Task: structure prediction
Amino acid sequence: MTNIVVLPLILPIITGILLVFLRHQLVLQRIIAVVTMAIVSIISVIMLHQVYTSGIIYLDFSGWAPPFGILFVADSFASLLVVTSSIVTTCILLYATTTIEPKREKMFFYTFVLLMVAGVNGSFLTGDIFNLFVCFEVMLLASYALITLGGEKLQLRESLKYVLINVVASWIFLVALAYLYGTLGTLNMAHIAQRVAEAGQDPLLTTISLVFLVVFALKAGLLLYQWLPTAYSVPPTAIATLFAALLTKVGIYALIRTFTLMFPYEPSVTHRIIGIMAIITVVGGCLGALAAKDIRTIAVYNVVIGVGFILIGLATNTEQGLQGAIYYLMHDMVAKALLFLIIGTMIALTSESHIDKMSGLIRNYPLFGWLFFIVMCALAGIPPLSGFIGKVLIGQGAIASSSYVLLIIGFGSTIIVLYSLLRIFLSCFFGETIIPTGDETPMNKVNMAAMLLLAGCIISLGFGAELVAPYVKDAAAVLMNPDIYIKAILANGGV
Amino acid sequence: METVMLVVVGILVMVATYLILSRQVLKVILGTAILSHAAHVLILTLGGLKKGNVPLIDDSDGPYTDALPQALILTAIVISFAVTAFVLVLAFRTYRMNGTDDFEALRGNIDD
Result:
């Protein structure tokens, strides 16, 4: 029992509310928002270490012992994701301070970002499935506000669709919760896992788990990703980056948690379906990335490919596969954030988004060009950058479970990712310069710092793989042995 | 009683589906509102309809009714209320900016 578990949720909320009262002090708002997220990052690192040294930590709210109350649980998997999401948000906020227009900043931009991060961190940490629904809604409502902020014509048109799709998805989530409560009579995740393990996962429970699969697949963009490309293209760069880095990843987290902790006993049904969905997602994402001419759309389809690839790790249902999925999930959050920031900056610098209308940027902005090169190599999984180790482990998992189709599709997608990004690199960064040297708008130093920080994370996640390895191994071990999680929560009680 | 309630849920979902599939933005929003009511009734029904007394130790001596479904529904109602309010404002702004409330006319992809 320790209060540190709730801090990644409560600190952003408190600061977010505080910022409402500082509406017109923009400089103060920027400083407070960035500093808060930096503090949350530090706290989450401490929490991660604490989990590693002393096992799963949890907090029962108001002292209601599980399974009766709502509780927050931090295991290594959740803590790793909280660490990554907090660090990524800090960098994106840094970028946002100079790129978001004052009219959006005055309409509580920072408040909404902080509330969304609170929802994201809450979703990672909660140990109660109804509370997961609530945290999802906190995150989604903040994202609705962020996607519509500014109220441009195109933005409103696309966000209406985004909001309605998510409203229907939330409804399916509620229906799934109703069936789950009607069948098992509990909402505590550890308690659900225990009851499913005791009673056996009969066809009824498997069906309920598939309803959850539909919900989380829609949120993660697994197979049901058709809403994603337009929704992620309309908002300003910083907001689109936040969405690409965090929102789909919460869906992936929920999928991994559901099918390793609560419903892991029918892999021939559930994991096979996830595998098929992942394959279609990867193939669809690859086709989209190849067909697109708009660099933003290419980046968005790369998000889709990433989602499919991570869930291949889950579909293999092996410890290596899950280790790979965790590594790759962390890598994907950082790398996609950097990719979106770079693409957004390119569009801002040239006022073009068509791939053929830009060229020669590397002469104007050499460091910026090589940053793109780094993120391209990382996403393609070239060692020693961060994507490599995740890809290798997912591949090992696929071989260990002899799912060769998953293996081939997964690694085939790597080539497409490399090709689609190489296309941007060659056509936009090399070739004739469109901006005469000396005439270019100077690169903003704060923006550059934000991107360099993310690039630093990619490089250190690659080189420091040994350092992160024990935490990832611990996370995957807990996922593969749900008993550890159940015992940690229900040790003192359990009905 | 449970059967009747489930039929009610079915009818609500039917009506909501019809509304959501229509082209007018306002009807779609009303559809989502009805859809959420269907979910609330479903939670209540699946949680078990009234089986015992009020769950207050001083006022009755059991067996008690499970109070959790009501708590869940209360939370869900608050959320769906907030979301519906938001979507209504959003729909109004979209109508003002785009000059139409027809989903056919709101089509199109990002490139045009």
About this structure: Chain B has a mean pLDDT of 89. The radius of gyration of chain B is 19 Å.
